[in-house]
Amino acid sequence: MKRVRLSCAALLSLLLALALSHPALAAGEGAKLADHYLKKQPAPALDPAPTLEQAMKIQAEYIAAIMPAYGRVVGYKAGLTNPSVQKVFGVNAPVRGTLLEKMLLKSGTAIEANFGARPLYEGDLILRVGSEALNTAKTPMEALAGIDAAVPFIELPDLVYAKDVKINGALLAAVNVAARYGVVGDAIPVQATPEWMERLKSFTCRIYDEKGTMLIEAPGSSLLEHPMNVVLWIRDSLKADGIALKKGDLLSLGTITKLTPTAPNTTVKARYVGLDPKGPVEISVIFK
């Protein structure tokens, strides 16, 4: 089957078409949620509660509404890839969102602690697509050949909904899997070798506070047992919607360490041990 590469304009048109293709969305639920997101105001629960299929259509409208503020599509994210987090949200599979250009910030960035309606942080990892052969990879090792870099990533998600809303997988999908911001480190070149397969699985992400106290640590295997399993899941999820990955796409793989509320006048550091062959690497974000 012929794969289609979509420009940002074409993808925006596709998102709008998907959003308007379901009669249940005539009221513009995605646009309403986007308004809360852009104003950093907690949103009420959707009524009636959407199915996951409906939520993805709401998400399409939501993304179209925030793109003027957050820029072009630069990649995709998977949420709920950690079994313990899946239990919290009552699901047994991940959900997919879209990364926009202005969501990504440099390590060391200072940002308001209340950067969203319900701001959080978590240790995450980005893998960068190096070859469109990833679209036809059949095994994790073949998929790894389509990855050219690993990028340390502290995601700064925003749950958007009010605290009294019980958020499930569909509600999370509707708000683009809580994508708001994230700080990135330098790209680490990746090779398609057994050593790198093991490195991605066994590296440790350790979260520290500004005093150097370690708050939590977790291995790469927290991500669906292996980060490449998440890559393949994202690829398949996109393919089901007629979207092919392209060189340079960034894939955020989800929660390595637990979701944690932000606090003003603090600094969070994420140290990745065993990921870069040259030694541990660290990124940070300052909450004002």
* SS-derived structural category: alpha+beta
Low-pLDDT residue intervals, each spanning 5 or more residues: 19-26
Q: What is the CATH topology classification name? A: Fumarylacetoacetate hydrolase, domain 2
From the N-terminal CA to the C-terminal CA, the straight-line distance is 50 Å
Strand content: 25-35%
Q: What count of helical segments does DSSP give?
A: 8
CATH architecture: Alpha-Beta Complex
Q: How does the major sheet shape up?
A: 9 strands, mixed
Instruction: Give a count of the beta strands, DSSP E runs of length 2 or more.
Output: 14
| Helicity range | 25-40%
- The number of distinct structural domains comes to 1
CATH class identity: Alpha Beta
Shape: globular
Order of helices and strands: HHHEHEEEEHEHEEHEEHEEEE
Overall pLDDT score: 92
Rg for CA atoms:
18 Å
